[in-house]
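RETRY 2/3 - previous attempt timed out on the joint model. Re-submitting the same 384-residue input unchanged.
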Amino acid sequence: MKYWQKMRGTTKSPPRVSLVEIAWSWLGAFLGILAVAYLNYQILSGTTLVMVIGSFGASAVLIYGAIKSPLAQPRNLMGGHVFSAIIGVSVYKLLPAAPWMAAPLAVATAIAVMHATRTLHPPGGATALIAVIGGAKIHSLGYWYVLVPAGLGALIMLAVALLVNNIPRTRSYPEYWF
Amino acid sequence: MVERLTADQGKTAPDISDEDIYEAMKEIPGYLDITPGDFKEVYVLAYRQAQERLLHRATAKEIMTREVAWVRVDTPLQEVAELMAQRGVSGVPVLDGANRVVGVISEKDFLKRMSSQGITNFMAVVAGCLRDKGCKAVGIRGRQADDLMNSPAVTVREDTPVLEIARLFKEKAINRVPVLDAQGRLAGIVSRGDLLNLAPFRGGKA
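RETRY 2/3 succeeded.
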């Protein structure tokens, strides 16, 4: 196919899901983010700990809105956040004075590692990026960032996904664990 | 990838459109994280995979012709030709006294002897006959099967996969292959035409 022709696309967008499906996606996301946000703002406020990071919003899209996707399976969710967090913190510690270089390095390396470990989870890229650009509070966590919020927060959202996504007859989660 | 698929589509691709896939996706509740185009690509490749598997699994026994016309090494060529004409086949296995397949004799072997300029097809013989006097077959009159046959014979067993037979046809430039049973006796013959009896080509079950 010619270079320019490729830019026209080859097929159409997948169909719209039913209203019922939309409602279940809404409910799952609401409860999942409620759990980590409540912990963050009501329980952990005043501490140095963080439980909600921006990338969880993206994870919610996948694990409550596209639950059949390989990107949304437990292996990807947990592996994606944990590996990316390790990469993000490491890169920041390596280049604390050059965020313009640490940021792309963290995201690109996180994607490579997720690919290699078969844990590709798009929000992982954000988790790695946040480790670099997240500000003083995130930076002060050091490698704790890997466990809390990245690991534990993802685990809580996974628990909600398992509970909510298996209620409706038409939904089943996960497709696979590992 | 997309380009290769469309180029090959005439061969084995199932007749399925993006629209078919789209409609099927609508029947599955929940968001499917794949475009109809990608799904079709997977489907086409999987379909081919299944066809290939069927070809691998099918064996000579399932598609061979059991009523085989055959001749002996000492059968006169005149009788060989008459038999082939009568049965409407373009080749026959040649058996020795112990009923072992020792060769195959085909139209091509006759044509080879009857055409002068090394072109071994029927029209070359016709041209020769029109150009020269007399029948070109005179030269082999009175000879017998083992003077003309291709030996040793390329044979297969009843459990030989059909795909391997197809490969043999191509590699050896032959059009039929005798099938031997476990005892080495002639059990049947597979011709190029028999390959068309395969399930993927008939649209039915083997």
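Chain A has one domain: 20-165. Closing ticket.
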